[in-house]
Specification:
With 359 residues, this protein is of the alpha/beta class. The protein is built from 14 helices and eleven strands. α6 packs parallel to α7 (151-163).
Length: 359
């Protein structure tokens, strides 16, 4: 009954089977194996365009290395205040870019806006030697608030970025969850909307440790192979990363996994909204929920053994619930039942003193 993260899960059986199959025989190292070479075409077919694909093991590596290609040490990367690259990567983008600055933008529901980006870039001091110079824009899809940028929102942000000759990077740690939420194709959510670089996530959705950096302009990726090696992320036995990604994309496994995770999140959201005193902080559009619980309900759920993160430094009552590709429907129903029972108990206890005084 662990709703802390989609990182608490194991791996999809299909991916484990693919790893066992990849384990047989010898394969050339450092990405020269046949499986990694085939992966390039697999992604090209999926995204309906030529592109450069680089497997890595973590999302932080994917983001930091991708941004390092397009951002000089004196550059600025524009992102949301709560973006993973700003809050949860321990300065990795700054390290791999050699000292670039993250310039954060506020925005409702975890999203930056084209208007806010345009205002920030207008005031950036382009060409002024005393200021960091705009170098890239990064958005997270799905966002850190569990929301999803619409295609129109991505296109509008891309238009502003490209007006200033800035590449648009998409942190897709939960790429599949966003995609099935929108009901569009990978191409429509990325390069056709103006995205230039994607950190394509698989680990949260059924892989063990497998992400990929995608460049839709292969010329832009010329230095990436060297940066990946220098950063310690060129795996000698690359076939084991590629095997995970190949299985992930085969037979729509990635879409099936994400659809289930999103459906479990939607069931949680619908059920919690029926319980008095419980409210959602953001729209639920992928597989994350941010919820306000009365303290009695929160403490009761924790005592029952349900696990989740409180999302405020002062230990407040907002919590994050995350569903995954293998979240059991029974666990979701148990959570809703327990929350309802604790809510009823809290209401009864609040009424009891009043009833006693009236009697």
């Amino acid at each position: 009954m662990n709703f802390c993260s989609d990182n608490v899960t194991g791996a999809s059986p299909e991916i484990l089977s693919a790893l066992i199959a990849a384990n047989g025989g010898a394969a050339m190292p450092y990405g020269d194996d046949e499986m990694t070479q085939r992966l390039q075409q697999q992604f090209a077919t999926l995204f309906e365009t030529d592109l450069a694909v680089f497997p890595v093991a973590t999302g932080s590596a994917a983001n930091a290395l991708a941004l390092s290609v397009v951002t000089p040490p004196y550059g600025a990367i524009y992102c949301h205040t709560e973006a993973h690259i700003n809050v949860d990567e321990c300065g990795a983008p700054e390290l791999f870019t050699g000292g670039a600055k993250l310039v954060t933008l506020a925005g409702e529901n975890g999203k930056i806006t084209a208007e806010g980006l345009a205002q920030a870039l207008e005031a950036a001091g382009i060409g002024f030697v005393h200021h960091v110079q705009p170098a890239a824009v990064s958005i997270t899809q799905a966002t850190e608030a569990g929301t999803v940028y619409t295609l129109a929102e991505i296109r509008a942000i891309a238009q502003v970025a490209h007006h200033y000759d800035l590449p648009l990077h998409l942190d897709g740690a939960r790429f599949a969850n966003a995609l099935v939420s929108l009901g569009c194709t990978p191409a429509e959510m990325t390069w056709r909307a103006g995205v230039d670089i994607v950190s394509f996530g698989a680990t949260k959705n059924g892989a063990i440790a497998a992400e990929a950096v995608l460049f839709f302009n292969p010329q832009q990726a010329q230095s990436f192979a060297y940066r990946r090696k220098r950063g310690g992320h060129l795996f000698s036995k690359m076939r084991f990363l590629s095997a995970q990604l190949a299985a992930y994309l085969s037979d729509d496994l990635w879409l099936r996994n994400a659809t289930h995770a999103n459906r479990m999140a939607r069931r949680l959201a619908d059920g919690l909204q029926q319980i008095p005193g419980i409210s959602l902080c953001y729209p639920v559009e992928a597989n994350e929920l941010f919820v306000r619980f009365p303290d009695a309900v929160l403490h009761g759920l924790q005592a029952d053994g349900f696990r989740f993160y409180t999302w405020e430094a002062n230990g407040g009552s907002m919590v994050r619930l995350v569903t995954a590709f293998n979240t059991a429907e029974a666990d979701v129903e148990a959570f809703l039942s327990a929350a309802g029972q604790h809510s009823q108990t809290a209401a009864s206890e609040a009424i009891a003193p009043l009833a006693s005084s009236l009697s």
